[in-house]
Amino acid sequence: MLQLQNFINGQFVPPANGRYLDNVEPATGQVYSQIPDSDTTDVQQAVAAAQAAFPAWRALPAEKRGRLLVRIAELIERDLERLAQAESQDNGKPVALARTVDIPRAASNFAFFGTGIGHFSSESHFQEGQSLNYTVRHPLGVVACISPWNLPLYLFTWKIAPALAAGNCVVAKPSEITPATAYWLGELCQEAGLPAGVLNIVHGTGPGAGQAMVEHPAIKAISFTGGTKTGEHIARTAAPMFKKLSLELGGKNPNLIFADCDLAAAVSTSIQSSFANQGQICLCGSRIFIERPIYEQFKELFLARVAGLAVGDPQLATSRQGALVSEAHLNKVLSYIELARQEGGTLLAGGQRVQVPGRCADGFFLQPTVFEGLAPDCRTNREEIFGPVVTLTPFDTEDEALNWANGTDYGLSATIWTTDLDRAHRVAHQLHAGVVWINTWLLRDLRTPFGGMKNSGVGREGGLEALRFFTEPQNVCVRL
Ligand code: NAD
């Protein structure tokens, strides 16, 4: 059985304690590899390697650092098929999705920041006859990147690439549930010639390896994506140590569908935003509010499309829905389906675990599920389910839709469907969401600030925001 290793100081090494964790393939329910159950000792080794590599890495001209990152991007593209297969096996997502979204985006992350660092200029402020101030942006030193299981390589590299581009050395931990592509990334970094210790990848659990990273005094900043509860815990640990924190957390995103929208496009994209990656994208819209005059029509078209979403082996091109990431997560989502029933919801589609015949008989599959008739403020409509479960709710006025959309503790993203330009902007500005899409969903420009309001996070990733996060500004004032 494949046994993954940590990547520390440019070498693949076993965990110091010799312990390993089983890694399960969600589509089959079978253990197919093992990963290090790393602890403080491994993290200390990784931090020491990063500290040793830092002076030379920060001294390397930004253009040379950037070229190395672009080389890694090219190698990811070269190995796209192998990485897509690995991502699909590890996560349960359709291989077609990994091939078209996850892995290309991981390559783009490296290419974007590898070239972007060359355009990252410092600010200066001139006061005639008085002073010239200029700002130097120093790399922080050793930083931690901790990522979740839903978009494994995509989100892992979204943090690592800007951190490295800005001149930091990194200790990174992928989710213990989806470690595979992070492991292969280590190999590609070796091949690209990334100097030893610049990127260290430590595998293991959150309470084990993750907590040791958060507590390590030499780690100056933590870029974390994951659940809101975990983010809260990390903030509590890191705040007294004055570490910089970027927290990308949960969501409960609304789709607002107005009667004047392009209905076919709204239905088609809402299918994507509800069920892509089995609903396991932080940006998925799980609460669909539809203006009453088109409610029945939207519902009918939406349900017809849901019926066509084939659930099956992620390796097959015909499968539109793969497996959920783990049995524990499947059970959590099923418990929310039960809750929605108890809260008085009417089940319009799905609701059941799916038995896929053949090699996937023990996999963690679930039907795409749709409810209506739930109060906008019930738990089903306020808590993050993070699975293929959505609710449909009619609304009568713009204010009502806005109140309901804003009526959760989360504020990550929102989608508006309308052809009324005034309304589109008016509603967008009143939504408590860090990202608002108008007549589209998940259309990304990597230069834009990305992140959530309220309990969906602190800080923003993307473009210059990420490069600012991973640097410490120092102002130098010269008297004229
Ligand atoms: P999680 O919080 O359980 O784990 C995320 C990562 O944190 C994992 O690597 C885990 O091992 C680690 N971790 C857990 N406890 C830790 C600790 N005490 N110290 C340090 N690290 C620790 O989240 P998950 O279940 O892997 O991912 C799903 C969640 O991620 C959902 O809530 C989803 O909304 C969120 N998410 C948010 C975004 C975003 O951009 N806002 C993107 C994707 C996913």
From TrEMBL:
Superkingdom in the source lineage: Bacteria
Domain Aldehyde dehydrogenase span(s) in chain numbering: 15-476
Active site: E248
TM stretches of this protein: none
Keyword match NAD: yes
PROSITE patterns in the cross-refs: ALDEHYDE_DEHYDR_CYS, ALDEHYDE_DEHYDR_GLU
Keywords attached to this entry: NAD, Oxidoreductase
Pfam families, per the entry: Aldedh
GO molecular function list: aldehyde dehydrogenase [NAD(P)+] activity
Family, per entry: Belongs to the aldehyde dehydrogenase family.
Protein name according to UniProt: Aminomuconate-semialdehyde/2-hydroxymuconate-6-semialdehyde dehydrogenase
Organism: Hymenobacter chitinivorans DSM 11115
